[in-house]
Structure formats: structure tokens, C-alpha cells
Design goal:
single chain; ATP5S synthase; LRR_dom_sf
Length: 183
């Protein structure tokens, strides 16, 4: 296949993976439905009280509705995209998210993330690494994550106004520890 056909196919497939299934969320609860979405897209999840990262879709734990609560998400090299972020709405216990080498993560994703009321309350650590579509606008949108304690940013070529962006973010979130590797 020519490269343009391959891109079109993968774009279509990623859109399918990221389509939100509201009936599934109702049937199995927000944490299970989000786990399924994240694993389908190549991400990992860790549940409260566990040190083990869940990476096998077919090995997702079973049990009573609501037993397993997502505490951390590692989306390294996953195909998560804006369209699926609605799965994050019902998650109440996520304290840590890592977005690394996520080619579909863009400013709208970070804005959606920061507008998710449950994440505004629970998210404490966020790492954004080598996500080429993230710009200053996306980083500035993070100011709504009022409980964010640690933000690590690395290899983000779309950030052009580094000093201004980080000053504004630090003013909005004075307790935030900001670690940068953006040379």
C-alpha cells in the first residue's frame, strides 16, 4: 500500500478504537470501560492498591462493578486521541498520567483533560514527553488541574514561548513542581 493509504487506514482504525461506547460505560462502570479503551489503544493502567501495570486486555480483572479503580495511566506510544477522552469523565481516582510519544495527543486533548472535573480533583502528576502536536496553548490549558503537584515536560517542539507559558502556569498553580527538559 502507498504511505497515504496506510495513514488513512490507521487513522480510521484509531477512530474506531477511540469511539466512546456509552452503553458499555453504563454496563460495566467507568473504570472498567476506560480500562478497556486504554488497553485497546495500547496504554497501560494500574489500579488502586496494586503495583502491577495491567497491559493485557484479555487479562483484565473481573469482580463486582466498581471494584477496580484506575489510579495511574501510562499511555506511552498508544493511539489514544481526543475522541476517546470522554472515557476519562467517570474516573475519580487517577493520580498519575504519562503521555509519551503519543502522536494523536494535541492541545484539545490537554484542554479536555484539564476540564474533566474528576481529574481536576484527583490528578497529582502529569508527564508529557515527545508529543509533537502539543503547543503552548495545550500546556496553558492545564491550569485547571488545581491539585496537580508535579508536571514533567520533555521534547515538545511545539512549545515556542517557553518562558511566558511556564510563568503563567506557575502563577496559576503556585504549588506546582515543574520539571522541564525542552532544549
Amino acid at each position: 500500500l502507498p504511505p497515504s493509504s496506510c495513514r488513512a487506514f490507521w487513522g480510521w482504525l484509531n477512530a474506531v478504537f477511540n469511539k466512546v461506547d456509552h452503553e458499555r460505560i453504563q454496563a460495566v462502570g467507568p473504570d472498567r470501560a476506560a480500562s478497556e479503551w486504554l488497553l485497546r489503544c495500547g496504554a497501560l493502567v494500574r489500579y488502586q492498591g496494586s503495583l502491577k501495570w495491567q497491559q493485557d486486555y484479555n487479562g483484565l480483572p473481573t469482580g463486582p462493578l466498581g471494584k477496580y479503580k484506575i489510579e495511574a495511566i501510562n499511555a506511552t506510544e498508544s493511539c489514544i486521541m481526543y475522541r476517546g477522552f470522554e472515557y476519562l469523565d467517570g474516573l475519580e481516582h487517577v493520580t498519575d498520567i504519562r503521555l509519551e510519544k503519543c502522536m494523536y495527543i494535541q492541545d484539545e486533548c490537554l484542554q479536555r483533560l484539564s476540564e474533566t472535573s474528576n481529574l481536576q480533583k484527583s490528578l497529582q502528576q502529569l508527564k508529557i514527553i515527545s508529543c509533537g502536536n502539543v503547543t503552548d496553548k495545550g500546556i496553558l490549558a492545564l491550569h485547571k488541574l488545581t491539585n496537580l503537584e508535579y508536571l514533567y515536560l520533555s521534547d515538545l517542539p511545539g512549545i515556542r514561548e517557553k518562558e511566558t507559558t511556564f510563568r503563567v502556569l506557575q502563577q496559576a498553580l503556585p504549588k506546582l513542581e515543574l520539571e522541564l527538559d525542552l532544549e
